[in-house]
Write a structure and sequence with these properties.
This protein is α+β, with helices and mostly antiparallel strands. Helices cover 33% and strands 26% of the residues. It has an eight-stranded mixed β-sheet with strand order 1-2-3-4-5-6-8-7, sandwiched between helices. The two termini are 22 Å apart.
Length: 175
């Protein structure tokens, strides 16, 4: 597996790029948004300082090869409107979880559909993963539908918690 994340992945009107300190306001906006937070098991971001600390933590984790994390921007703008990541990577570097979030004003425009396709392609073609997983709140129908659209199938109803897990295998990806 490549351990170095590309700083940018470009496709049509999208740029997925590494986060920088200048993104703190948008990261704060994303991580404090109630509409996004209601489906996630994480504390609400309370300040720009917390957003700064999050960006530092993410970039340090990328440097250590622990995960891959991109801000989603439109090609003609530089402001982060969402994020997408591959995390919880297995020790043998063949599996990982995907995570994604998008500000509500940008939903329904195909942005996350394209972003997810780019990251799935990256995981299977560049990282040579065998499986990708997505853990989602069963009430988050839009995220579930997005994953299904990309070939993810229900894998585990996760009886130990309030989420369900979807999986995409390399075999299904290649179909």
């Amino acid at each position: 597996m490549k351990s170095i994340m590309p700083n940018e992945i470009k496709y049509e009107n999208l740029v997925l790029r590494k986060l920088c300190k200048d993104d703190n306001l948008k990261i704060y906006e994303i991580r404090s948004n109630q509409d996004i937070a209601k489906y996630l098991d994480r504390p609400i971001c309370q300040s720009l300082e917390e957003a700064d600390n999050f960006i530092t933590k993410v970039n340090n984790g990328i440097s250590r090869g622990e995960y891959f994390y991109w801000g989603i921007t439109l090609a003609d703008e530089n402001e982060v409107i969402g994020t997408i990541c591959i995390w919880n990577i297995s020790e043998d570097k063949t599996k990982g979880d995907i995570g994604f979030e998008l500000l509500p004003a940008f939903r329904g425009k195909g942005i996350m559909t394209k972003s997810l396709r780019l990251i799935i392609d990256y995981a299977f073609q560049e990282l040579n993963f065998d499986e990708l997983f997505g853990e989602v709140d069963p009430q988050n129908g839009k995220s579930i539908n997005l994953m299904k659209k990309h070939g993810f199938e229900l894998f585990d109803e996760n009886s130990s918690g309030p989420t369900v897990i979807y999986r995409l295998t390399k075999e299904n990806y290649l179909i």
